[in-house]
Amino acid sequence: MCTKKYGLLKRRTLGAIMHEKLIKTPVTFDDVLTKILQFLHTIASWIGGLIAALIHSILPSVTIPNDLVEAIGLMAMLTVFLIVVQIAKKITWIVVVVGWVLIMTRIVLLMIKG
User: Fold this and answer.
1) 3-state class of 8 per DSSP?
2) CA 66 – CA 52 distance, rounded (Å)
3) Residue 8 phi/psi, 5° resolution?
4) Which residue has the higher pLDDT, 62 or 97?
5) Which helix (H) or strand (E) holds 9?
6) Is 41 helix (H, G, I), strand (E, B) or coil?
């Protein structure tokens, strides 16, 4: 896309076009929340489909209904989220303990120094 300005051709970048479009159409919190939830639902459906395909490859006689596939995907996402939170919690405790050890070491060194 080109625009003519002062007799010269000025090429508009995709970023400039998107910026103009964003300025013209305000984005509401509901729109952002809807997009995030749609994204999470899509990922959950994909994960559920993969798990259902894995179950079907192990047990070919079992057919899993579509609504159960989505529930499996949502539970898998929730499980992964909880695992990540637990790992982050452990890392946080390690950082806190190391911090206290370093503070105590500094206090001891100050006491020895005088």
Assistant:
1) strand
2) 9
3) -110, 150
4) 97
5) strand 8-11
6) helix
- The number of beta carbons lying within 10 Å of the beta carbon of residue 20 is 11
Pairing of strands 2-5, 8-11: antiparallel
pLDDT digits (tens, 9 = 90+) for 68-102: 999 999 999 999 999 999 999 999 999 999 999 99
- What range does the domain containing 64 cover? 2-113
User: pTM of the entire structure?
Assistant: 0.61
The number of distinct structural domains making up the chain is 1
Closest CA to 53 of 74, 39, 72: 72
**Given 3-state DSSP classes, what are the helix, strand and coil percentages for the chain, each rounded to the nearest 5?**
80, 5, 15
Contact by Cβ (8 Å): 18, 27: no
Query: Smallest Cα–Cα separation from 47: which of 67, 68, 76?
Result: 76
pLDDT in tens, 10-59: 566 777 776 666 666 677 888 889 999 999 999 999 999 999 999 999 99
